[in-house]
Design goal:
Rossmann fold, alpha/beta, about 475 residues
Length: about 475
Amino acid sequence: MSDAALDVVEFLLTTSVYSDDRRLDENDLPPAYRRVYWSGGVDDDGSETGGTQAKPAGISRPLTVTNAAAREATEIDQPWAAVSELMFTERDEFSGTITLADEGLAEQWFAERVDDDRLLENPTLARHFTEHDEFDVDVDYEAARDRNRPIQADRVWIDGLLEQYFDEEEDEEMLDLVEVRAPEEVDMSLDDLVLTADQENELDKISKAIEHRDYLADIGLREIGKLLFVGPPGTGKTSTAQALAQDMDLPFVEVKLSMITSQYLGETAKNVDKTFEVAKRLSPCILFIDEFDFVAKTRSSDEHAALKRAVNTLLKSIDNISLIQDDVLLIGATNHPDQLDAAAWRRFDEIVNFPKPDYGMRADILRVITRQMTIEEFDPELIADATEGLTGSDLRMVLREAVLEALTEDRTSLTQEDLLEAVEEFEERDTLKNMDMMGGDHDALVAGGDISKASSDGGHDHGHDHSHDHGDD
């Protein structure tokens, strides 16, 4: 029997068990299944609304399986065709629903073909099968539930809450200021990044703090969970915060402080208040405030009084939000730490440095971002030697240039020479971009390392200690 049949039968069993077992809640359903059945509040007449008269959002029992629902949940093009020959399935031609004619037979069929690792991805069935002695399974229901992404991290849950909260046109303008991403929408994890030992240590500490929030509250340690990421552009501050959100299954709320100046956002101080209210309503979550140096620039300038009020509101809001009490991890980021004043610095309990990558860090980054590429005689140390001063973001741009150049020659594999030429192209463009065209030295086009020398030398160590991974992007 095909894997498609196993997928569809799992869906049918899950919906049936969930409909009957009232001990189960939304966090017992795999995310792909929740997405199918989640609904926002509706009035008694069935009209959609975000108003206070709406029924609560959630998943209503019983769960009905149609061909369309099964297709969305399993990504099988023809769900009924996949299980139509099984003696325990049937379809109502009038309504289009698919059901289990003999659930006991379906359970036995499924149990003979599923392994424990798969059951751990489905808390509903993990609980069901472990409670029946006739099935030879060895899974822990609580472990399956802990592994399952919580409903608060799903896009459907986030959208439902935002629609309910932003129920007026004025409030909807806030969505121009706040960008909310579900963990499933972040395309990288911490494993995809190359971090310094200090960065890894700080992220490990904050992960433990999130895990043990109740303990920290009990001992009175509440001033924790406000990080400031400091470093040049392109060193991975935003990427690291997003990856942390994905790894910890937390919604990611991003605010760019310069957006406060937008004439379309109405009362700026009110908008800052609402930003923090959104984070608290979405908790547990990560609130990421980019361009934090904007705070100091506004406080020290002759900007409009409304902007200064907004910044003061921001600082007070930071004081009043807590990882321990509100389940909100606050991360600020700045490319210009020299512009921060004491009032900004003292809002954070941890400072995490994001330096430009050194030789060893660049080599490690190159290994990570070329995992799925075919490169003949690839020597990341050689490329690292030729890219002194480049950030992780710059290295991705170099690889992008090399790939696109190869495609113009109808090639999907790269050579070491392709990469070296892409480095030279990138550095020439970067130099031209930063050159003072009215009085600069127009002859010095190539910045950074000497590529031809790097090619002949074959790279060198620069004294880097490779005992642990460095770098970031």
